[in-house]
Structures are given as structure tokens and as C-alpha cells.
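Appendix B, example 12.
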Amino acid sequence: MIEIKCYPVGELQANCYYIFDTDQEISFVVDPGDYSSELEEQIIKDGTEKVMYILLTHGHFDHIGYTSTLHKLCPSAKIVIGKGDSGFTSNDILNLSSYFSGEGVEHFKADVEASDNDSLSFGQKAITVLNTPGHTTGGVCYILEDIIFTGDTIISGTTGRTDFPTGSNKEMLASVNRIRNLEGDYRMFCGHGESTTLEYERKHNYIMRDSVYEDIY
């Protein structure tokens, strides 16, 4: 069984997720943007050696800011980021930390620069990488079974903004359409706010529903 715990972190309350597979007794973390004592306590309780990946949906500071420190706690975990955002991990202008806080994040290098449709082994299962540029040029979603971690590509009812460096309205619309056209339904865990489902977003996310895009978030 897949267990998912959400820890909103930092000033922007970005969602950091901890995923534990109780059958395989392995885990991964999505978007450790800032420190969470609850997250660290849970990882230590379950076993730091069981964390296989630190998955980054994109390179903004509120989603990557605690990656370097977390990796020291879980040194066997592989850090994964979309290939197009690989430079964000050491560039405080691209990752926006110098703009928002005046202080840069602790720089690091990803172990895996993922491409579209890459498959990450997760025990007997697999995590699929889906390129979804728009919020950033290298933004990705991660799919595990009926679960999608969308980062700031889909935020329930809307999308992430596109006016930061490397953002693109056109690419965002294409990414939203790509997600909309996935077969079936998925549970969606977003970079901010509440979780949702793909079927709900098809009906209620006006950008996905109407195939139009406004930069509102």
C-alpha cells in the first residue's frame, strides 16, 4: 500500500510529500522546499536508508531549498530533476531565492537529470517522468500507479504562473492539455494547496476545461 504524507513548508507553504510503500518498505520524497521536523522524524522512524529518491518537480527555491540538507540525512537517495531545470540547483536567479529572500539556497547537483518518459525503478514498481514545461522550462510531473505529483503545473482549479525566468504560457497550455488527455483518472498531489483528481480538474479547472490560459497565479 502507498502511504502519502504532505508537509506544507516555508513561507510559501509549498507541499513536500513523503511517500512510503508499506509492502516494499521503501520510500521517496517529493519537493523538500524547507525544513520540516515532522518529515525528518518520519523518515528516521521508517529508516533513512529506505529513501530511494528525492524527486524535484521543478527548480524553484520553495521546492528545492532543503534538498541538500535532506540528502545528507539520506545519502543513498538519488536526487532527480527535469533536465531543463538542472541549472536551477546552483543559480539563485533562476531558482528565485535571491529575488524572494535575498539568500540563496544551498547549491547541489542532481544525480539524475530526467527526460520525458524516463522510468525510475521503485522496487517492483516504476515512477514515470512526464515533461510538463510552462512554469519552468524543465518542469516535470511524476506518476506512480494512479498518483501524479504535479508540482506547480497543476494547482487545483488553475496552474502555476509563467512570468518567472524560463516560464511560457504556450508551453503551460500544452502541458495542461497533455495531462488532461491522460487516460482514466488519477489522484493529483499539487505543489501548493489541496490534493485533487484529474477528473475533477477536467470538469472544474477552467484552463484545462476550456483550453485557454491566463497568467493568474
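The CA atoms of residues 35 and 66 lie 6 Å apart. DSSP finds seven helices and 14 strands in the chain.
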